């Protein structure tokens, strides 16, 4: 775990102290800091004059020297590995050049020595004794001993021994193969040649050099030290005889094989390739016969910044989507997590009943909008079950249905409550408590005359079906007395008409009593 060291300065003239506790200070001043110890680890907040703002703990800013020291150490270790590999490459190249130079040097030395021995002892020993094309002989001098056995039409073998070393040579006259074993005090060399192809093992104090068109190691191989190779292939077959392999070439590693599994209710089969290189891992589907071609889609990339179906992590039309770690598209904070897609984003429960999908913001706000929070989008669903629901100016909870501007609109365009359709209820109650009213006085207008002035019409609404919907009976706004018309001029006040009719009945009742002499 990294040790975070915070540094800073405090001025005696600054009377703003850091508050440490589970809750913020009651009367903060602008710039004041609060270390919230209710979280693990504690979080640092700053009062900007209106609200508390979380302060991001950036290790690089807290102790840049520490971070730089860690980066330098990592860079030094990385460079050390690169230097070691470069040194191995350099030594291997030097060893190869030295072996090739020694081959020429040894071949020339022993060829000259053999010829010298033969020249010195040829007449004395009678070098050739011919018998059906076969030849054999021994030549000896102060320089060394050379023996030669062979058949002129097939093979010839020669062994030369000097004070400096031994060399054994076997040459085929018919197929052109040539093998040489050379032993010196400081090296042993085994070499086979044909048509300029050389297979060779050379052991010397500088190292062991092995070369060949094909090198086959049958058995366990253990390497103590660094193993450097520009190209490594490990191959095998699965239970059905299909090829699979892992190849390492420089900084690239590819693992190839046959995939067979059931995935989200669907059966998936085919060849796939897993590639790791340049700081990312990629999974690709193969196409063609026996997976001979790497398909560009679908492909899944794993990087230190996130997971995506494109290398650059974009969510364009060519990609299914991306999960981005340390995302900063919606916030300057570096610890955000972004899920993006050029198509649908699906959160699905595979069980029909008895399971839930939870979204726990833990006190944070949930927005359905663009990254700038300037454009908000629709939420389409069947049922919203919540203790409190706020939508724009609309607010509802388990006991209230309110709107900040005093308007609730269901299918209509205006009015406090405007419903384009029938309203069915058990009881319609008009608020009438005295404490809710003002300017209370007796209504003295002639209600009977007011009722006589209103024209009652029969009508249908524009959406009604003729011959099916019965006509309505009522007033038309532009013909109705002003006492029963809504102040916005959009309709008539039914309850107002009821109370005016109530007053008219009282007036008529008073006249009846007067006429009957019972008033």
Automatic annotation (TrEMBL):
Q: Which Pfam family, any one, appears in the UniProt record?
A: Gp58
In its keyword annotation, does this UniProt entry include Transport?
no
Q: Where is the Gp58-like domain?
A: 130-204
In which domain of life is the source organism classified? Bacteria
Q: Which residues form a coiled coil?
A: 78-105, 426-453
Q: Which UniProt keywords apply?
A: Coiled coil
Name of the featured protein? Gp58-like family protein
**Species:** Kurthia populi
């Amino acid at each position: 775990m990294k040790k975070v060291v915070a540094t800073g300065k405090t001025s005696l003239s600054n009377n703003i102290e850091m508050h440490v506790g589970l809750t913020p200070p009651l009367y903060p001043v602008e710039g004041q800091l609060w270390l919230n110890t209710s979280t693990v680890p504690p979080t640092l907040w700053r009062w900007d004059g209106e609200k508390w703002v979380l302060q991001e703990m950036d290790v690089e800013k807290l102790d840049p020297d520490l971070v730089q020291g860690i980066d330098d150490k990592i860079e030094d270790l990385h460079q050390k590995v690169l230097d070691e590999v470069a040194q191995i490459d350099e030594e291997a190249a030097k060893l190869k050049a030295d072996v090739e130079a020694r081959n020429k040097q040894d071949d020339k030395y022993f060829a000259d020595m053999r010829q010298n021995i033969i020249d010195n002892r040829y007449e004395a020993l009678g070098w050739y004794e011919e018998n059906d094309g076969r030849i054999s002989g021994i030549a000896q001098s102060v320089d060394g001993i050379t023996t030669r056995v062979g058949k002129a039409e097939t093979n010839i073998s020669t062994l030369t021994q000097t004070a400096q070393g031994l060399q054994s040579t076997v040459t085929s006259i018919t197929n052109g193969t040539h093998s040489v074993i050379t032993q010196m005090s400081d090296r042993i060399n085994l070499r086979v040649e044909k048509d300029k192809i050389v297979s060779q093992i050379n052991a010397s104090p500088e190292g062991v050099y092995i070369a060949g068109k094909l090198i086959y190691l049958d058995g366990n191989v253990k390497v103590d030290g660094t193993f450097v190779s520009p190209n490594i292939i490990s191959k095998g077959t699965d239970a059905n005889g299909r090829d699979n392999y892992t190849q390492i070439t420089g900084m690239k590693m590819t693992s190839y094989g046959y995939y067979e599994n059931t995935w989200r209710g669907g059966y998936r089969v085919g060849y796939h390739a897993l590639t790791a290189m340049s700081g990312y891992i990629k999974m690709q589907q193969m196409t063609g016969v026996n997976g001979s071609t790497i398909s560009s889609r679908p492909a899944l990339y794993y990087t230190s910044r996130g997971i995506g179906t494109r290398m650059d992590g974009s969510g364009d039309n060519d990609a299914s989507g991306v999960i981005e770690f340390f995302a900063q598209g919606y916030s300057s904070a570096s610890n955000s997590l972004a899920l993006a897609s050029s198509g649908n984003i699906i959160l699905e429960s595979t069980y029909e009943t008895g399971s839930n999908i939870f979204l726990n913001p833990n006190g944070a706000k949930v927005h359905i909008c663009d990254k700038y929070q300037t454009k908000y989008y629709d939420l389409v669903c069947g049922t919203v079950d919540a203790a409190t629901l706020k939508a724009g100016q609309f607010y509802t909870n388990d006991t209230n249905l309110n709107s900040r501007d005093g308007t609730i609109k269901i299918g209509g365009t205006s009015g406090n409550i405007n419903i384009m359709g029938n309203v069915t209820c058990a009881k319609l109650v008009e608020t009438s408590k005295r404490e809710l009213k003002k300017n209370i006085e007796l209504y003295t207008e002639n209600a009977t005359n007011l009722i006589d002035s209103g024209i009652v019409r029969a009508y249908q609404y524009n959406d009604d079906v003729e011959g099916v919907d019965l006509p309505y009976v009522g007033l038309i706004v532009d013909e109705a007395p002003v006492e029963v018309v809504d102040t916005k001029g959009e309709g008539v006040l039914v309850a107002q008409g009821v109370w005016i009719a109530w007053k008219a009945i009282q007036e008529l009742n008073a006249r009846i009593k007067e006429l009957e002499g019972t008033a």
